[in-house]
Design goal:
There is one protein chain. It is built from four helices and three strands, in the order αααβββα. Helix 2 packs across helix 3. Strands 1-3-2 form a three-stranded antiparallel sheet, with no helix packed on it. A hairpin with an 8-residue loop joins strand 2 and strand 3. It is mainly alpha-helical. The chain is elongated, with a radius of gyration of 25 Å. Among the domains are: 50 residues; 58 residues, no CATH class. The chain binds a DNA duplex through helix 3. It holds the Pfam family GcrA. InterPro entries: GcrA. This is GcrA cell cycle regulator.
Length: 177
DNA sequence: CCCTGATTCGC
DNA sequence: GCGAATCAGG
């Protein structure tokens, strides 16, 4: 399977949306996650929106070659059963949303915000502001029954991830001649 | 043990 | 350029 422009475009899109390499590999089909990662690297997309992993490993040692020309003939290990369990792909688990879809909470202009110290059980726990800010707090309205949020924020919390269904692949076929 | 991305290197 | 093997971490 070759990396056509369409597939590379799809790869970029999915990668930018935060999908994992294996997810992208399944989506595209015909490639493994290694292939996806390798392509991502060659495209220079390796670091997306996850700088929370500044792991710098020293250069690894060269991979040891299995030495196929081994003169050994007495390989007495037939007991190994290399059966593999076929993974059943999960149907549709909205594991996570795209980072771009995250809406930064805004403070409601009513001054009803409570702080981490004062928020209690029946209060809406919708975050207000940046957790790093000293005045970070919660909405504080009465929570809506089961929901940890008030009626307003509960709607926001349960809003399904709306996907963009705009398939604009027209320009990809211009080089088909 | 499952997953994740990162890197190397033979092809 | 490609991707399996491998590594390293969660």
């Amino acid at each position: 399977m070759a990396w056509t422009e369409e597939r590379v475009t799809e790869l970029k899109k999915l990668w930018a949306e935060g999908h994992s390499a294996s997810q992208i590999a399944k989506q595209l089909g015909g490639v493994t996650r290694n292939a996806v990662i390798g392509k991502v690297h060659r495209l220079g997309l390796s670091g997306r929106a996850t700088p929370s992993r500044p792991v710098k490993r020293p250069p690894r040692l060269a991979r040891p070659k299995p030495q196929v020309t081994q003169p050994i003939a007495a390989t007495a290990k037939p007991a190994s059963s290399p059966n593999r369990t076929p993974k059943e792909s999960l149907p549709a688990l909205p594991s996570r949303m795209a980072p771009a879809a995250y809406v930064k909470p805004k403070r409601l202009g009513n001054g009803d915000m409570v702080t981490v110290m004062t928020v209690s059980d029946s209060m809406c726990k919708w975050p207000i502001g940046d957790p790093a800010d000293p005045d970070f707090g919660f909405c504080g309205h009465s929570s809506d029954g089961d929901s940890p949020y008030c009626s307003e924020h509960a709607k926001l919390a349960f809003q399904p991830s709306k996907r963009k269904r705009t398939n604009t692949y027209g320009q990809a076929t211009r080089m088909a001649g």
